[in-house]
Specification:
Layout: E1 10-18, E2 23-33, E3 36-48, H1 50-64, E4 70-75, H2 78-93, H3 107-118, E5 121-126, H4 134-154
Parallel strand pairs: 1-4, 4-5
Antiparallel strand pairs: 1-2, 2-3
Length: 155
């Protein structure tokens, strides 16, 4: 499947985090295309990590798209952007081992993110967190909401 080149990109901002790390976590995503906005969030009430939540946000956003499209995906996580654009192909080639021959952490999420990206034409962008970028700030608010809702639902 290929994305239609004339499509306006879906612009996605994602964020994730834990309080404390590791601990309960939340993720958030803001999806925009042609004036349409979708806000998404979720979380884990048990012990998870910042990195797992940062990976979950783009996975959930990409999996929510109903057809193949061009995506401009913004994350404030260097780990996520570098992992998917630079490291993941080598990890896969090496049987999901790092260059130090250690198992890749969060391999389940990296594989799921790879599969989600394969359906679309994704361009990855890094944005500095908490720097006033409106949709990045909103993704942070959504991640906090996801964390709070997950904790409340587990009580």
């Amino acid at each position: 499947m290929t994305a239609e080149p004339l499509d306006e990109p879906v612009v996605i901002h994602t964020d994730g985090g834990c309080r404390p790390n590791p601990g309960p976590g939340g993720w958030g995503a803001v999806l925009r295309q042609r004036g349409h906005v979708r806000e998404m969030c979720g979380g884990e009430p048990g012990a998870t990590s910042n990195n797992r939540m940062e990976l979950t946000a783009p996975i959930m956003a990409l999996e929510a798209l109903k057809r193949p499209v061009v995506v401009h995906l913004y994350t404030d996580s260097v780990y996520v952007r570098s992992g998917i654009t630079k490291w993941v192909m080598g990890w896969e080639r090496n049987g999901w081992l790092t260059s130090a021959k250690q198992p890749v952490k969060n391999v389940d999420l990296w594989q799921r993110l790879q599969a989600a990206c394969a359906r679309h034409r994704v361009e990855w962008f890094w944005v500095k967190g908490h720097s006033g970028v409106p949709d990045n700030e909103l993704a942070d608010v959504l991640a906090t909401r996801g964390l709070q809702e997950a904790i409340a639902a587990s009580r």
